[in-house]
Design a protein that fits this description.
Keywords: Signal. It is a single chain. By secondary structure, the protein is α+β, with helices and mostly antiparallel strands. The protein has three domains: 101 residues, Sandwich (Immunoglobulin-like); 103 residues, Immunoglobulins (Immunoglobulin-like, Sandwich); 249 residues, no CATH class. The protein contains eight helices and 28 strands. An eight-stranded mixed sheet has the order 24-25-22-21-23-26-27-28, sandwiched between helices. Strands 2, 4, 5, 6, 8, 9 and 10 form a seven-stranded mixed sheet that branches. Strands 12, 14, 15, 16, 18, 19 and 20 form a seven-stranded mixed sheet that branches. A hairpin with a 6-residue loop joins strand 8 and strand 9. The longest helix has 18 residues. It is globular. The chain starts with 25 loop residues before the first strand and ends in a 15-residue tail after the last strand.
Length: 499
Amino acid sequence: MRSFPVFVLMLLSIVAVAEPLPEQPVFALQQAVGSELDLDPLTGDATLKVFYTGMGKGDTVGARLAGVLTRDTVIQTVTAPGVLSFNLPRSWLRENLGRTVTLTYSYKAKGTGKLFTSAALPVSIVSTRPEQFGVAGTVDGQLEFDSLGDDAKVTVLFGAMAPGDTVGVRLVGSVTRDTKIEKVVDDGPLTFSIPRAWLQENIGRSITLTYSYKIAGAGALVVSRPLSVTVTSALARVAVSGAQVVQGLNARFQETGPCPGDQADYQCNGVFIRVVDYSPAFRAWNPSPGAQKLGGVSFSYIRRDLKTLKLQENRTHGLILTEGNRWVAPLLPLKVLCAYPYDGGTATRDGSGCGKNKGYADSDRCALGKINTVTQWRRRFTQYPTGEARYDHQCSFDPDKAGFDLSLQARENPDQEHVRWRQNEVVIKTWAQNVHNLPVEAFFYTSTAGREPARSIQKDFYKSTGRFVPVVQVALSAPEVFTYKVCDQVVPSVMPSCK
């Protein structure tokens, strides 16, 4: 008989000791120091700890982060009272870099009934990694254009920047320009090229640069602080300055894309132009007596797609305003009141030129008559034959983005309209007499007959305000609508010798 070894099985008793419950409620972001969370040492998600008095089995608990977006964690069900841990993804925190977020938790006892919400826990999301945002060659906020070899270089590095982020730079000047979007591939700074031409069109101006990014190329767009840079040129005399004005005017005339956000098109593209009559007894840039009484000053808004081939009554000289987004201090803030697809006969209307015309009840503001589409507007407009009454019956569109867009879209066939009324009409609220900071960008002439009056207006304006505003020629059917000629200028202190 074989013998077998005997194994003795000894049972070890393991006693689990439960962690005692906290004596006080717990609500804290584990990786934060005080009220700040530094993203740089954070390699993964952050952990939010939660325990509240009266926590019981079956309670359902969730946490919320309110920042650029509102983010909610997964709901947890309490299996046994104790400190709960909630993961806050690093991406949620990165999109709030430089901001203070608000954390809260909420719960339902046994998962039903009233929702209880905690007091707010504010946490500032910071980065100790120094930001890099600047234009190479800039000294004391000024960039010398003449010293540029080729394009200007913009360096961008922001706290917690990581591979996969997408970044772009925007320049806001005479025209809004956006660089190509770049994808972050390592931890180093990105370098963006600003074309020389973008800076050339802004000589003598202050431009604003911002960078924006999306974490991992998705989600909320985070926009940086603005960086102001003045583009200077030691060689930029009057001829260059005037040339830059017409370059900006031609760019705006050609630009038909929408302005950013809820801005109407006149804020960034197109050209406001007003015909006037020169008189040594009257400052041509002042609102006329009729405009003062009316409360509105009439302009045409011209752009490549609007097919404007004539100005009001074929008059030969006048003034041009800057784009609307430059109507801020120190320039005079102007206010657009309304717009008509064609000449609106505003001199005989109420409401500062935007209301009813000669008692035509249906000629008030379009919004009041529930005219909200081009089809509705044209159906009523074409009820009347091509004559003065047709244009007097127009309703006026509001100056917001939607209304102004409709006023432009309604110009479907301007060459089929009466020649006296083909130009559109935009009414700007009357400004005070003799202001020195009117946002006038140029004085213009359309023919030889208008050249001397335009030069005289330039001289008067310079004498009155001390500001040099160039005289430009306007040819609405030419490939380049606006041209600048040195010898059109008459201001003595900046006028070169012309034979």
